[in-house]
Structure prediction request, 214 residues.
Amino acid sequence: MFSALFKKVIETRSKKDDRDQPAQSPWVVLCDFDGTISRRDVGNSMFAKFASCGWEDVVQSWKKGQIGSRDCLVAECSLTRATRDQVASFALTQEIDPHFKRFLHFCRSHDIPVVILSDGLDFYIDLILKKHGLEDLPLFANQLTFRGSKMIPSFPYFHKGCGSCGNCKGFHVLRYKQNDSKVIYIGDGFSDRCGVKDADVVFAKRDLRRYCRQ
Prediction:
């Protein structure tokens, strides 16, 4: 996905700039993690590995709009038994898109900040970013702690968002736009739906692409 974005981002940046204005608003890239930066949906793969029967039914209820992503994640974690070390070992086997680092270098060379927004869990994202030397990237995600083999999620941004998402990406998009930034949003799934509503430019694939075309 990222290999195709280099030229499009800079072309979009030039087209969107208003040359009659004395100062240009900066661009910012807000990017999903699971299935976008990572090659697989790590959270989904984690629950597939460690959760008991029923977790897929919970995800289907979320996709049908019967529950929000916060309630979905709480239920998934309650069905999961895995220690901190087990989840860490699993996370460290995960790979990122092979073109993402080039894309990040491209954005930084053009003074375009890149920020990760995730409705997943910070524990595995932090480990994967550090593995690939990307731990300096700003990250906004739900949080995960462990009590033995129990996974305990928490949601520091829940009350600031739509009231359904654990970490509403729409809240973060609007927060950056209030700082006079123009938002380029990149994502792939259902958790990105709130994020694309107020973004200036959207690059979408898979479920998010189908959603945007509806």
Q: What stands out?
A: The CA atoms of residues 33 and 125 lie 8 Å apart.
